[in-house]
Amino acid sequence: MKALPSIDPTLPLDRHPERIWYTSYGSNTHLDRLAAYIKGGRPPGAGREYPGCRDPAMPARSIPVELTGALYFATESAVWGGGRAFYDPEADGRVLARAHLVTSGQFADIAAQEMYRLPVGDLDLVEVLTRGRCVLGDGRYETLVCAGQVDGLPVLTFTAPWGMNDVPWVAPSAAYVRFLAAGLLSAGAWDTDAVASYVASCPGARGHWSPRAVAALLGGDPDGHRPPGGP
Known about the structure:
Blueprint lengths: L18 E6 L6 H9 L22 E7 L1 E5 L9 E5 L5 E10 H11 L11 H6 L1 E3 L7 E8 L2 E7 L14 H13 L5 H10 L9 H8 L13
Parallel strand pairs: 1-8
Antiparallel strand pairs: 1-5, 2-5, 3-4, 6-7, 7-8
């Protein structure tokens, strides 16, 4: 298994970086899923076509990381059905994630597409890189969070402005769980049991998805269906 890179929790000095670590904790942990945001297209199991980034180059690197905080599932995804993944950096726990080395422009374009907007411009990252957090709007993925830096480049992600306990939790769909779990597994830092147990323990998934059912999805069910007897 790959060694887990350590995130330096101090904020980077460069407030205008050309490249950043876009840190995904949801379905974009999977490179095939991320490719729809970058190159455009519709990933298997999704109900939406994506326009892609202005720069269609795939990440120069993708590394496994762990964030301080908690992952939970909430709201209702029009793309997947079921709950979406959100990150609460203020909660106790750890979040398995995958950091993709992209340009700051690509990060802006991915964030725009998460809000069903066309990618047309860059983001001002000065506030999030100065304070560690920046609320761009009240949308579900319009709060930027900087977890620190790796190799001198900022570790950035986006999430909702609310906290984990401020909204009802919603169980994620099989297709969504499959992409998220398979993406984490392919990062090479965690084995099937660790990924399955982690996903099944997250609020929203807990009580609906068992570790065995998540592991079954990772075993290659081609349609992303829950196995017989699963949650």
